[in-house]
Design goal:
Elements: H1 3-34, H2 43-72, H3 74-78, H4 86-108, H5 110-113, H6 116-135, H7 139-145, H8 152-163, H9 171-189, H10 192-202, H11 206-209, H12 213-262
Helix pairs in contact: 1-2, 1-4, 2-4, 2-7, 2-8, 4-6, 4-7, 6-12, 8-9, 9-12
């Protein structure tokens, strides 16, 4: 077993245990410190709260590292299929450790936070990342996919506001809702056409053929599964956004009518 393999395995384990500690220990202490309302939540809400704290921590780490690799990693930019980047592999290893940790939490607290779509998402991503870590291929591509995680902090923050019973029309809630919709669309939906355009452009090339049928099929199929779910989630977010905008307009119209009566 070479040094690089030991590093990646160690990173996966370290990631797994770190996120478990955040879920079971750190989040309880930190959340109570920064948000007094946390202590008033029931057991089920606290479990989901802690799960989303872990999700936010993971998203910030792998999303920002993925963004750095996307913009500045010369080896990956020069050859997205075979470019060897140690940082990229470490980032995928961190994400893999998180996915296993979150799967364990989902199963253990299934009656509270169980979600079949998350299980499909996590298992699909883990299957794809296995090739990145084991075969050293598609490292740059795998990190590009991790840019999708940049939307998670805003999605989680929306849930935090809801759990703490923030008014739907509060400034913080509205701003976060707008950012959530925009960022989710940019990193998960707008990226789909150029991504599959690139996939089509390398189809049949020597670098693509070297991947072998299993990796070729796995690359395409896992991306399709994940992007179908991204589109489903985007539709759900869009419906919620449209509903809030409609309610805001009704609220403004009601206030205008009241002011008119007062005048």
């Amino acid at each position: 077993m070479d040094t690089n393999t030991i590093l990646l395995i160690s990173t996966c384990f370290a990631s797994f245990f770190t996120f478990q500690i955040i879920f079971h220990v750190v989040s309880y202490w930190f959340s109570a410190k920064i948000s007094p309302g946390f202590n008033n939540l029931n057991f089920k809400k606290k479990i989901e709260w802690n799960s989303r704290v872990v999700s936010t921590c993971h998203s910030l780490v792998v999303g920002l590292v993925g963004l750095y690799i996307f913009l500045f990693d010369e080896a990956g930019i020069a050859d997205p299929l075979w470019g060897d980047t140690s940082l990229g592999k470490v980032n995928v290893a961190i994400a893999s450790g998180y996915l296993v940790s979150d799967l364990l939490i989902l199963i253990w607290y299934w009656k509270v936070i169980g979600d079949k779509y998350f299980v499909i998402h996590h298992c699909t991503a883990l299957y794809a990342y296995h090739f990145v870590l084991n075969d050293g291929v598609l490292v740059y591509v795998g990190n590009f996919r991790l840019l999708a995680e940049l939307s998670s902090p805003f999605v989680n923050q929306r849930w935090f506001f809801e759990a703490l019973k923030y008014p739907k029309f509060s400034k913080a809630n509205v701003i976060n809702g707008i950012l959530m919709t925009v960022v989710f669309f940019v990193v998960r939906i707008a990226s789909i056409p150029p991504y599959y355009g690139y996939m089509y452009s390398v189809f049949g090339t020597e670098a693509y053929m070297r991947l072998g049928f299993l990796i070729q099929f796995s690359w395409i199929s896992t991306c399709v599964v994940l992007d179908v779910m991204n589109v489903m989630w985007m539709i759900k977010i869009s419906k919620g956004c449209i509903k809030v905008i409609s309610l805001l307009r009704q609220e403004k119209a009601r206030k205008s009518l009241q002011n008119g009566k007062l005048d």
